[in-house]
What does this fold into?
Amino acid sequence: MNPTVDFYFNKPTKWQAAYLALRTLLLDCRLIEELKWGCPCYTAGKSNIVLIHGFKDYCALLFMQGALLKDKNKILVQQTENVQSARQIRFTTVEDILKNKSLIKSYIKEAMALDKAGLKMELKKTNEYKIPEEFQVVLNDIPELKKAFQVLTPGRQRGYLLFFAAPKQVKTREARIEKYLQQILNGKGLDD
It folds into this structure.
């Protein structure tokens, strides 16, 4: 157990008992417990294998390379269509975890084996994402914006491209682009 992560398990939430059951399960698998992205993350060597996180309706184990898992039991969930490699096992009660301990451990051990074998999901490159037409017009009109966008990290670029492309209405896409121009010029991502 890593004491820097204890606060996550000690805070009163509706998932507290489930979190503790998952923690025990993961530590039984001899993973190293760390704090990453504000959540308990379990690693092997330098690789992130799985993390615990909670939402309003469920808590989950998020497998970083979950798309590579065989998932014979069809329990892995892709959070959104834009999530490439990560997959979740979702739980709504602590009993779900306790009655499926051996099944959950088998997924953890498979994820560890994939990592040990060096297998990683081939991720879509940033240049494979479609640039929304409205954003391309602005990039063409403002050369310093284009340059600022190009020096952003690939993850920040993808974040903007997905965010700008999401609305169905042109007006909404244009409003989002306008709102974030200065942030891009300042070298910041959506959530920075």
User: Anything to note?
Assistant: Residues 3-116 form a domain with the Aspartate Aminotransferase, domain 1 fold (CATH 3.90.1150).
